Amino acid sequence: MDLIRISGIRSYGHHGALPEEKRLGQRFTVSVELERDTRPAAAGDDLARTVDYAAVIRTVEEQLKGKPVYLIETLAQLIAARLLGSYPLVQAVTVEVHKPFAPVAADFDGISVRIRRERACARPGPAGPRRQPRRPGGAARGGAAAARRPARL
User: Fold this and answer.
1) What is the pTM of this model?
2) In DSSP terms, which residues pair with 11 in a beta bridge?
3) 24: closest CA among 36, 12, 10?
4) DSSP 109
5) Is 80 helix (H, G, I), strand (E, B) or coil?
6) Do residues 134 and 141 lie in contact, with contact meaning Cβ atoms separated by under 8 Å?
7) pLDDT at 122 over 70
8) In sequence order, what are the beta bridge partners of 4?
9) Is 22 tagged catalytic?
10) Which of 22, 65, 67, 99 is an active site residue?
């Protein structure tokens, strides 16, 4: 799978666990990696067969400026879900949310969270009810009665 990387998307948001973070807001930086097969676009030099980078950046900015959340883990998940939902050519996405001014009493460059999410495959499962796995000896899994039954030889 090929990789399209857009790094350093900066925007202001009101995310964080402290009331001051929600009230005052702060700058966040996001980098995304979009996994897809770029051969069709490259073969025809065709913009319609790839991802619109400017639109991806706008999608990330909208989420950063949107409804506040407490955790950057949540913010990363929301960005990943939006990207996968908005761009059907993308098979997987990696999102890194960097919070350079996290209110921690220490000298550091920032805190970041990096997640990778894949597009869910919509494959139908087998028909009929699911059977419980069998334990060695033939007893069904779980339940006190199953634990008391002797194993068959």
Assistant:
1) 0.77
2) 28
3) 12
4) S
5) helix
6) yes
7) no
8) 34
9) no
10) 99
pLDDT beyond 60 at 43: yes
The Cβ of residue 38 has, within 10 Å, a number of other Cβ atoms equal to 17
Percent over 90 (pLDDT), the chain: 69
Q: What was the pLDDT predicted at 126?
A: 41
User: What are the angstrom distances between the C-alpha of 107 and each of 16, 31, 32, 96, 100?
Assistant: 19, 23, 26, 21, 11
Q: What mean pLDDT, rounded, does the chain reach? A: 84
User: Cα 97 from chain centroid?
Assistant: 11
CA distance 11 to 71: 16
Backbone angles phi, psi at 49, to 5 degrees: -105, 15
Dmax over CA atoms of the chain, in Å, equals 70
Task: Please state the rounded mean pLDDT for residues 73-96.
Answer: 97
What six digits make up the tokens of 31? 């980098």
